[in-house]
Amino acid sequence: MKEIEEYPELSYVFNRRSIRKFKQQPVPNNMIEVLLKAAMAAPSAMNNQPWEFVVIDDPKILGKVRQQMIFGRQETPLAIAVCGNKRKARNKFSATDFWIQDCSAATQNILLCASSLGLGSVWLGVHPVKIFSAGISRILKLPRHIKPLCIIYLGYPDQEKAAHTKYTEKNVHWQSFGNQGSEEVTS
């Protein structure tokens, strides 16, 4: 891929792919800690840091999570539930739903960090699907003010996927919506 040749330090970004087949080899605790540190390095609105993480490596609990997540039936040795703490998300603007953006940024950091460590990962959306949210909350015994955003399956990949981008030029607008070229727009 041309971008990796030109900017090799970004290889983990373009190599990050949704992996759905994992070796059943455990992920070492020190790597899990690095993933969580990367997550908590994410930006957050007004520095609220409303995230909470539930690390799941117990096969019984992973089995319950698999049953709950209809698009997440894959066997995985590790999952991390990324959750928002609604109590931490309060602010003077009443913008309590910034937890969604904040936890999404933390999730992306985990995915990119996993790629850089040679791990595979896949993001499974939980919020805003009520049945997923209620089920995951029950399985993980989350208090009412903790809302699950997503589950990330992680492990050593048992499949290979080529580096890629989903770049589409028609989705890029310059200066205002509808301007497809980078030419200066005069008003």
Describe the structure.
The protein is α+β, with helices and mostly antiparallel strands and 187 residues long. It has one domain: NADH Oxidase (3-Layer(aba) Sandwich). It contains six helices and four strands. A four-stranded antiparallel sheet has the order 1-2-4-3, sandwiched between helices. It starts with a helix and ends in a 32-residue tail after the last strand.
Could you list some keywords that capture this structure?
about 30% helix, 4 strands, NADH Oxidase, alpha+beta, about 190 residues
Short description, anyone?
The protein is α+β, with helices and mostly antiparallel strands. The protein has 6 helices and 4 strands. Helices cover 32% and strands 16% of the residues.
Ordered list of secondary-structure elements with their pairings:
Layout (H helix, E strand, L loop, with lengths): L1 H5 L4 H5 L13 H11 L11 E6 L2 H10 L9 E8 L12 H19 L3 E6 L4 H10 L6 E10 L32
Antiparallel strand pairs: 1-2, 2-4, 3-4
Helix pairs in contact: 3-5, 4-6
The total beta strand count reads: 4
State the end-to-end CA separation. Answer: 38 Å
CATH topology: NADH Oxidase
- The oligomerization state is single chain
**How many distinct domains?**
1
